[in-house]
Specification:
This protein is mainly β. Among the domains are: 91 residues, no CATH class; 111 residues, Leucine-rich repeat, LRR (right-handed beta-alpha superhelix) (Alpha-Beta Horseshoe), CATH 3.80.10.10. It is built from three helices and 14 strands. It has a 14-stranded mixed sheet with strand order 1-2-3-4-5-6-7-8-9-10-11-12-13-14, with no helix packed on it. Strand 2 and strand 3 form a beta hairpin. The radius of gyration is 23 Å and the shape is elongated.
Amino acid sequence: MCSISQSKYISQPEWKVLEELKGLVKRELNYVEKVNWKADFAVSIENNHVSALSLYDYMLSTLPGSIKEFKQLKHLFLMKNQLKEFPIEITQMYFLNSLYLRENQLVKIPESIGNLTQLKELDLGRNQLVKIPESIGNLTQLEKFSLGENQLVEIPESIGNLTQLEEFSLGENQLIEIPESIGNLTQVKDFNLDRNQLEEVPASIGNLKSLKFLRLSDNNLTEIPKSIGNLRSLEYLTLSINKLRLIPETLRNLTNLKEIWITGNPLVKYPYALNELPNLKYIKIGSKLNQIFESEFNELRAKGVQEY
């Protein structure tokens, strides 16, 4: 670590911004080789420009407009502050690869976020967002995208343009449906839709052939599409606390499935497909289902499947 004296290697406008931030947070700035999201007040310098900046847990409600001088910024971490408005200057940082705004008080994301076409990681979780602009579809390089723990009621169709996504979190929102275009996200490995108000899942979810983790617990689902049987890479599936009466027989095709949760559903028929899954190791059943289908689950236990 070094002090703010490192700023002598950068341009005068950028140096002034660092001085302004130093006065704002009333702390000395630390220079580090690689800034991460939980760094207190830290910066990295690359090719005589600020390349990464972290301001973690400073209760900041605004940022100085002068941050637009960080034109070569690649990584910006502003987690656990009190930003109510998205700093519009950020949308002029065209080289950003990572933007973390988790745990703020944001209620709206500007259309101009679509300018950040180099973004690979975007974390907007734990804010107060109700909707996301269509321009989000411009961020075609995104690999990790978190929108969990907001108040989202809808997701734009343009989400289907994010074909490089590998991790996508929409858990703990107010979503009733997700668009068919979700089926374009064929690189997604981890998809979290827990704790929403989903009444159905589009059949196109069966296109997500790379998916390993799918979380659908705590929704209002009355059925699961048969296309779920196409998810041959799936290892972990949560369906707990829904309104499912039946689980599709196509579940038997999930030969890599290791863990499944089905507790808290009013099943009227035992899902015999479970007994045909060669790699199933763990199941969450719940006492009610266990009582109704005791002999069937005993057969599953006899195969070495553990309950918890």
